[in-house]
């Protein structure tokens, strides 16, 4: 993901563990925004929430609130969202916050699968958005973010990765962060002891614009070079280009209906071409098998003069002879080994009836 820079608006997040906060001093120390813990689970309310919310507002610090998620089922997640929304009413409701409400989902007490983790998260987010009218933010750790699938990719990401030099790692769902919690041991005037430090991917004016109180929480479109293929798609792009589905230009551009029609037309032609190739191979196999039938009969004619073969074993003898001839026929055909063996077995079975006719009531054939 991207690095921090000098333009990033600075913020903190606090809970009862920070004790009494002097919000005027916090503001004077360059902090522009703050997320305050409101609730956890289905019943807990942070005892400092309303006091911190009022103090931050009075000092001119942009206000957000977060809920620590404990749910291990979809229904429990919805119940926690309702609890969070009720707690937000103590400070005027979710719509009055400067920043969207946050789902803090960072551990897995129920040992849930990745699929269920994403389902629980989505249930909470949708219910909270329904109740507050705001599209929430997802807070999580860099490692835990790997549990979230693409259904959550449209939500803003507040990610924890404590480092001054190492950026958060890309995940399947997110390649950029909106807010980065880069330290859990920061020092800010007005807060006793350590406090979490956060940077927003933009200026103070941009965070105001990005997260407004009308619920217009839109993920900005990231600019990219449409002429460069993304690393994750390089192999498949090369394959599709070689096979003629695309012309090799503008790999990052949106596809038009015309281009989709052209790709589908090429796909159809390739399928039809593949059908013709398959028919040609099948014809070769049948011709080869037919030839083998004649050869197998000739071989049996030689064998029957010297070997007594029970009638019940005739099919087995035919298949074995066919497989052996198919295996040895490489210099005489372009078919690969598997097709030669298949044709040899087919020829042996096809010759079985002829064997029986050839051996019926003749010396050298036992009828056991």
Q: What is the CATH architecture annotation of the largest domain?
A: Alpha-Beta Barrel
Q: How much of the residues is beta strand, in percent?
A: 5-15%
In round numbers, the mean pLDDT is: 83
Fraction of residues in H or I helices = 40-55%
CATH topology of the largest domain: TIM Barrel
Number of strands: 9
Rg for CA atoms = 36 Å
Biggest beta-sheet profile: 8 strands, mixed, barrel
Order of helices and strands: EHEEHEHEHEEEEHHHHH
The CATH class of the largest domain, by name, is: Alpha Beta
Describe the structure.
This protein is an alpha/beta fold and 368 residues long. It has 2 domains: 10-210, Glycosidases (TIM Barrel, Alpha-Beta Barrel); 271-359, no CATH class. Helix content is 42%, strand content 13%. The chain is built from 9 helices and 9 strands. Strands 1-2-4-5-6-7-8-9 form an 8-stranded mixed barrel, surrounded by 4 helices. Strand 5, helix 4 and strand 6 (137-141) form a beta-alpha-beta unit. Helix 3 runs parallel beside helix 4 (114-132), helix 7 (257-304) packs across helix 8 and helix 7 (257-304) runs parallel beside helix 9 (337-359). The radius of gyration is 36 Å and the shape is elongated. The chain starts with 9 loop residues before the first strand and ends in a 9-residue tail after the last helix.
């Amino acid at each position: 993901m991207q690095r921090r820079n000098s333009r990033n608006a600075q913020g903190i997040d606090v809970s009862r563990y920070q004790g009494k906060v002097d919000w005027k001093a916090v503001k004077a120390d360059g902090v522009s925004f703050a997320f305050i813990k409101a609730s956890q689970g289905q019943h807990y309310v942070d005892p400092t929430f309303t006091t911190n919310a009022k103090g931050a507002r009075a000092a001119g610090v942009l206000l957000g609130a977060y809920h620590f998620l404990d749910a291990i089922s979809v229904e429990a997640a919805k119940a926690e969202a309702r609890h969070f929304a009720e707690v937000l009413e103590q400070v005027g409701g979710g719509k009055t916050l400067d920043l969207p409400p946050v789902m803090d989902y960072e551990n897995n007490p129920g040992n849930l699968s990745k699929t269920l983790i994403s389902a629980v998260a989505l249930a909470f987010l949708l219910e909270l958005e329904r109740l507050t009218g705001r599209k929430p933010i997802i807070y999580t750790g860099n490692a835990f973010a790997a549990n979230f699938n693409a259904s959550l990719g449209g939500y803003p990401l507040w990610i924890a990765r404590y480092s001054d030099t190492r950026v958060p790692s890309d995940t399947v769902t997110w390649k950029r962060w909106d807010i980065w919690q880069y330290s859990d041991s920061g020092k800010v005037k007005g807060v006793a002891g350590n406090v979490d430090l956060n940077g927003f991917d933009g200026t103070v004016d941009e965070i105001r614009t990005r997260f407004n109180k009308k619920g217009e929480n839109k993920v900005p479109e990231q600019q990219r070079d449409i002429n460069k293929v993304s690393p994750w798609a390089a192999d498949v792009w090369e394959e599709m280009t070689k096979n003629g589905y695309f012309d090799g230009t503008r790999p990052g551009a949106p596809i038009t209906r015309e281009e989709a029609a052209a790709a589908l037309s090429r796909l159809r032609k390739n399928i039809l071409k593949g059908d013709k190739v398959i028919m040609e191979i099948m014809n070769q196999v049948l011709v080869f098998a037919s030839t083998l039938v004649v050869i197998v009969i000739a071989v049996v004619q030689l064998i029957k003069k010297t070997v007594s073969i029970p009638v019940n074993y005739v099919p087995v003898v035919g298949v074995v002879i066919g497989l052996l001839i198919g295996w040895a026929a490489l210099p005489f055909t372009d078919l690969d080994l598997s097709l030669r063996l298949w044709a040899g077995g087919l020829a042996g079975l096809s010759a079985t009836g002829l064997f029986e006719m050839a051996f019926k009531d003749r010396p050298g054939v036992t009828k056991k």
